[in-house]
Structure prediction request, 810 residues.
Amino acid sequence: MLRFAERTKGAKRSAIRELLKYTEQPDVISFAGGLPDPATFPLEFLARVAQEEILHNAVKSLQYTTTEGKRPLRQALTRFLAEEGIHATMDQIVITNGSQQGLDLLGRAFLDPGDAVFVSLPTYLGALQAFRAYQPTLVGIPLEKDGMDLEFLRRAIREARRAGHEPKLIYVIPDFQNPTGLTWSEEKRRELLEIAGEEDLLVVEDIPYRWLRYKGEPIPTVASLDREGRVIVLLTFSKILAAGLRVGALVGPQEAVNMVVTLKQGADLCGPSLTQRLAVRFLTEYDLKRHFAFLCQHYRVKLEAMLAALERHMPEEAEWTRPEGGLFVWVTLPEGVDTTKMLERALAHKVAYVPGQPFFADSSGPNTMRLSFALASVEEIEEGIRRLGKVVAEEMAALSLAPRR
Amino acid sequence: MLRFAERTKGAKRSAIRELLKYTEQPDVISFAGGLPDPATFPLEFLARVAQEEILHNAVKSLQYTTTEGKRPLRQALTRFLAEEGIHATMDQIVITNGSQQGLDLLGRAFLDPGDAVFVSLPTYLGALQAFRAYQPTLVGIPLEKDGMDLEFLRRAIREARRAGHEPKLIYVIPDFQNPTGLTWSEEKRRELLEIAGEEDLLVVEDIPYRWLRYKGEPIPTVASLDREGRVIVLLTFSKILAAGLRVGALVGPQEAVNMVVTLKQGADLCGPSLTQRLAVRFLTEYDLKRHFAFLCQHYRVKLEAMLAALERHMPEEAEWTRPEGGLFVWVTLPEGVDTTKMLERALAHKVAYVPGQPFFADSSGPNTMRLSFALASVEEIEEGIRRLGKVVAEEMAALSLAPRR
Prediction:
């Protein structure tokens, strides 16, 4: 009886989100979720300011706000972003429901069916899902240790154009990417901007993990290197304050932000005032330097535990990334292993991960998986990776891909 | 340089929202905004439960939640809705960012360009804006004192179909409509369902003001009279708890809700956990009966003050609705008066309203205006309407439409 719109034809729920239900059984050590550790949320501070805002600032914290988001929050963000070399005025910032709403609004603003969007192989699943709603052609570009294969990107742009797919956006997560944990070199960031300039494209730079660097020196954001106003930045408070507030922001050229605000009016009128006020207080009153140092120390220990455990327990045919920050390690198993099929064996051994395939726009990567070290304790990480090593060895044996240890 | 999508061509910001900036000068008595009175927000309760949730329930209140929204909230809503005769399971409910996001997701799920959506003349501006993003044909149906002109609706559906516009949705606000304050009779609610059945259409029933009835007996919701699963209900906590939480819900047939959840995943992943937890606590712990009685008493006094002041101060050529609830009174001035033009005179007299034209899908109604009695005090209402009476009289005189008093 229901006659849905044409655009819903290909709509399907994230396989991963459906999978997560199974991975959350008790006794299962899960590396599956992409969640930050609630132990990092500043509870006392949030409880105090929430109470203050509600009792003494209700007209600001409990009434409707503007579509673009609270002024003091956008003002505080101009200063916060300036420290990352991103110089935007308050009017170039719109507050979004996490960075996910930013992705959706970009799709709505820029993508006609068939337009080409360039993403790395693999990339953040939620971005694929957001863009797909607008029926673009998603073009996958191989991801190397220091960023996209940019020669491949140049060719892909030309080919897309020849095939009648208008190139519009290049989507990147240059710092500690989800799902691989990889970080772009400064050289590639600069070359990316050159390509965007030559081809007249916009770069969408998603920086949710920017503040979670556990070693090495920060590399300038793509936006800070941009001289032509081609970069739209997406950020979120999910990993640096608390995920459940769903406060994010989209920052970009004035004309793009104006359009996004216009479209957001129809989409949700405005976001919640209360959570925006909590974010304002966090940015203006909390000791951010100390908080970020605490976050980094907290996750660094877990990342090191996971890398050490992988070294100890994985068959030597397995490869994995060694990120300098973020929440994820990316594992590549020998060809022939299918991590989606292997998940059943993993769950039988009471360990869970996310199969890598859904992160590939071209559905490649069946032998890959994403491990999050954020939620498990150091002890659980050691035990979970021990179990996972066994699962991989068993799976390889079952496929007659005898592991070498 | 920016190449926006085709769908953005007609996108424009709400004229009203832009206007509101001017109406919020000090000294202006404003009947313009559609905001609830913050004096009705239960601050002590919200402050206490916010603190409790953050300190003692952080994994539930500050971590990501599911796309469809928190289980306990959906569970509490099944009971809350049952009292309005709406019997839905938890899985037939999805939590949205206000009811506005529900409108957007319905457009996304159901509307192909050119599809026909039937709305009353006038109707809620935000609905027009949400639907327009999906490029439908909006068909305006005259609104009578007891609901849409249903003979007109029947003809309009047939005509749309003949013209190649597939009829999809009928959008209604049956209780104390925004902007008119009018309420549908039970007879028309039943006939609406008959028509929807005959023509195989969905009815979208938006009930933000349902709990704000100041006199008379409640009339059954359209959804409660539905036997065929044709009604999708939108509700919001904005007017009964606090607008700045942005918690709303969409309730409907399982298949429709499943699609909406799938699409919402790409749109925003999930809403804020904290505000949803506050809504759960409100529904399960607060004395709702007493709270709603308090709301009704609070607004009843203001509505009566406004109706009495209109009687005293308006030229007799003016007509207005006499709502039994909600937040708005709708005024119709003699033909020839243009309330958009008149606004300048009103601001000079330090009083503000919203011109009615943007609420009409066909841009008719230049001589209408919406007055909200929610924010002003009884004294301000008397003084503001006195000023407005003068404004109208002056405007009519200037147009040589001499007022009779």
Remarks:
- Chain B has two domains: 6-41+290-396, 64-285.
- The longest helix of chain B spans residues 288-313.
- The mean pLDDT of chain B is 96.
